[in-house]
Amino acid sequence: MKLVDIGANLTDPVFRGKYRGNQAHPDDLAKILERAKEAGIVAMMVTGGSLEESRHAIEMCQQHAHLYATVGCHPTRTSEVSKYPGGAPAYFAALQKLITENRDKVVAIGECGLDYDRLHFSDRATQLEHFVHHFELAHTTGLPLFLHDRNTQGDFARLVKENRQKFTEGVVHSFTGSVSEAQELLDLGLYIGINGCSLKTEDNLAAVKSIPVDRLMIETDCPYCEIRPTHASHKLLENAVWKLPESKRKERWSEACLVKSRNEPCAIRQVLHVLAALHGMDEAEMADKLYGNTLRVFSGIN
């Protein structure tokens, strides 16, 4: 079984044992990567959500052959663009330089898109202005897009449609929409990434079930988006053969255990099980389909 986690926020300090600025336990990234490998993960895409975070992601990926980076500016971080010396032209030129100098490790432009649920971080006009710059990055580099779409009232679909000729492929990660919203993304020729947050409600499950298998990808969006006992998908895990390791609170950290409420890449196996169950497939067959989809879009992964 081969799996690629297309969305892993491994630059988050919690994967180094630091929570809200305080060191709660030793750096356990090596053990996290080991558990991911044991779960069948052969590659991960480390998300770059800003210029600085993209640099950090690339540095991490240079140290691990199976890690690859995305480079871009998350919609909730776009307010930092105008504060950068030289503004947007200089910011996006720096992103392009980062890509050009690290083509062996950068496999996508993003995370980019729109997020109207968190306008307190960056207002609508700022998000719209800087989302468009990512289409230019994709056009000049030939890289696919790693996209974010949250409650965007048609703006996301409109901008993608207007700029569709500028990029080859794209995946909307962490999808949480309806059947009709999934169809709208499919009509734009996009792939859809599924994680625990995609599987919270019965409506979510119906939407994910409606997505053709040849348009699906899998992710954890760790350290967020775990499948919780309150999620509609949790009941589908009852007959799963593969089980998550024991979890403990960070204050009781043990190298052999997960940290409670800190999602890890290895939990991708739970998402795989739910996807396979929804589509009436066995896990190995679903994993094979997802792996093929991922390599088809992110050809830089090898």
UniProtKB/TrEMBL annotation:
CDD domains to which the protein is assigned, alphabetical: TatD_DNAse (cd01310)
InterPro entries (UniProt xref): DNase_TatD-rel_CS, Metal_Hydrolase, TatD-like, TatD-type_Hydrolase
Annotated residues for binding of a divalent metal cation 1: E111, D221
GO molecular function, one term: metal ion binding
UniProt binding sites for a divalent metal cation 2: H148, H173
Domain of life of the source: Eukaryota
The keyword Hydrolase appears for this protein: yes
Keyword annotations from UniProtKB, A to Z: Hydrolase, Metal-binding, Nuclease
Cellular compartments per GO CC: cytosol
Family: Belongs to the metallo-dependent hydrolases superfamily. TatD-type hydrolase family.
Protein name: Uncharacterized protein
